[in-house]
Amino acid sequence: MITTPQPAMPIVWRSETKPHKFCPGCGHPLVLKVLGEAIEELKIEEKTIFGCDIGCSLLAWDFFNLDTVQTHHGRTTPVIVGLHRARPDLIGIAYMGDGGGYAIGSQHLVNAATRNEKILVILVNNTQYAMTGGQMAPTTLPNQKTETSPYGRDPENTGKPTLGPEMIRAIAPNEAYVARGTVARLPQLKRYIKKGLENVISGKGFAFIEALSLCPTNWRTNAEETWRFLEKDMHRNFPVGELNPSKEGVN
Amino acid sequence: MTNKPIEGEMRVFMTGNEAVCWAALAAGAEFMYGYPITPQNEIMHCWNRMAPKYHRGFLQTEDELSAGFCCIGGILGGKRVFTGTAGPGTVLMQEPLAMAEMMRIPMVTVICQRGGPSTATVIYSQQETTLTCFGGNGEGYRIVYSTAGQQDLFDYTIKAFNTAWKYRFPTFILGDGYQSKMRETLTIYDPEARGIQMVETQPLMGSVGMPGRDREPVHLRNTYNMEDELYEVIKEMDEDFWRIAPEIIEYQAFGNDDAELVIISHGIVSRAAKGAVEYLRQKGLKVGYFRPITLRPFPREALRDGVKKAKKILVAESAMGQLEGIIKEELYGLTIPIEGYFRPGEGITVEEIAEEAQKIISKREVLN
């Protein structure tokens, strides 16, 4: 029997639901692949539960061989919080976009962080609401054109892009792990995800990782422009790296 | 669990909120999530004081949205979880409740009705009736028990957990601020002492084994791609709901065999209606009483049967026709005139219903 060779994928990669439904050029499959690898390397496939939000993240609802729940918009964090509190034996991952995390779900994110909930939140940032057609989001860059900022985002009227990890670092206790990775550096992103998972597994506390990502569909960019927008414009506005608690930290 | 909150049964004198809390404890509820809103706060206060002794969990969340979604999370993990809310909180709670409705999650919610809309008053009304029955962007596949006092609050809170976990529809205890805050005597009991077996819970997610290797993964969603997919899902839900409805429906009725006027009411107003009907009967007037206990599913056949001899119906409620609207739908096709005694946000006394009933009866005699 002739079979097409497949690239080695993590154990949790559910082949029955592949090819996945993300757009060509989307950053989600890249993030999900390294997340799957991290779960495999830490050998936590049996204990991990996965929650996804509304928006493009919901396309991950059947992505993994993991128990998964797709929630309402912005509500993945409290569902995973509730699940973990009922079942502290499980490792909860809440997966969402920049709209779900920093807009409609921001109060849940902020409160989970200040409570140091033992869950991992992965927020995929592509600077707009992609699934609904590319509306402006909290992380849209100044002058960036979106469907609800067709002449470019005006910071005078709508503020500057949200610096989520910085906010979380400022309010979460020192035990929380906070980082911003990028799909332009997948090994580094995987390292951050593993550290985040370890932080949760050890019982130390909350883990929050923003992953800078791509959306050529709504950015209306070709391959070269897509990567340039990420690596030049986004990296400049959203510094990549781990955010360690400051020495003078309040917590 | 050897550490039982109630052994056997005992007579107590307590507020409705305390009765709810004790019932939830006795029913084996493991978690409560909540957000402060009058008049249900004491459910949380009581729960927090009792929880450590009986190893139950609690979190006061950042709002009602979070309370509801944390409940869902806990239930997915296999625990009996409940929440309580009121007024503007009930409005917010529709968000998580819509998800529970779609995904058949056995969420138990206590609604302590207060004035509406918006902030209104903190204490009482029956203005969250249609919201509790039909809130959310769906068809209202929910089970709603409308309680009329402390004993009901205790009995139906225990029952709600069993109904929810057996039939998998969001289940409500619809009370109000008067019931929440007043004190009266009731009997609290260990369900086992009354032969009530608590329906076992099981985790919907995170059960034993590695997904993909030992078992299929559980993939839960509330989104559908195609219209026909959704149609099939809703059709099945509808069939499930109405198939089990006869097992769930509850009501109380008396005096309808020869009643010319039937007084319909729910919740605490039904106590005033009961008193009024008893009083009017003593005066020789042919008045009947009907009280739906389950507003959803509604006891339609029993109601239609109960009013078949009636010449007029009087609906008494502390809202501007919410119960009446439900009644009209249930009685569609019948031509019995319906009058409403509407007091949104105000309590209704025995005397007021009796007076209203007598006005109706005397008017009719004049017309005849």
Description:
The complex is a heterodimer of chains A (251) and B (368). With 251 residues, chain A is an alpha/beta fold. Chain A contains nine helices and nine strands. Chain A has helices at 28-41, 76-86, 98-104, 106-114, 155-158, 164-171, 186-201, 216-219, 223-237, and strands at 48-52, 67-70, 91-97, 120-125, 128-129, 135-136, 177-182, 207-212, 241-243. In chain A, the strands form two sheets. A seven-stranded mixed sheet of chain A has the order 2-1-3-4-8-7-9, sandwiched between helices. In chain A, strands 5-6 form a two-stranded antiparallel sheet. In chain A, a hairpin with a 5-residue loop joins strand 5 (128-129) and strand 6. Chain A starts with 27 loop residues before the first helix and ends in an 8-residue tail after the last strand. The mean pLDDT of chain A is 96. Chain B starts with 8 loop residues before the first strand and ends with a helix. Chain B has a seven-stranded mixed sheet with strand order 3-2-4-5-7-6-13, sandwiched between helices. A five-stranded mixed sheet of chain B has the order 10-12-11-14-15, with helices on both faces. Chain B is α/β, with parallel strands linked by helices. The longest helix of chain B has 22 residues, at 227-248. Chain B is built from twelve helices and 15 strands. Chain B has helices at residues 16-26, 41-54, 64-76, 87-103, 129-134, 150-167, 177-181, 227-248, 269-282, 300-306, 322-330, 350-367, and strands at 9-15, 31-34, 57-60, 81-85, 108-113, 143-146, 171-176, 183-189, 219-220, 251-254, 261-264, 287-292, 294-296, 312-317, 338-342. The chains are: A alpha/beta (251), B alpha/beta (368). The interface between A and B is large, with 37 and 42 residues.
Keywords:
heterodimer, A: 251 residues, alpha/beta, 7-stranded mixed β-sheet, two-stranded antiparallel ribbon, 9 helices, globular, B: 368 residues, 5-stranded mixed β-sheet, 12 helices
Short description:
The complex is a heterodimer of chains A (251) and B (368). Chain A has 251 residues and is of the alpha/beta class.
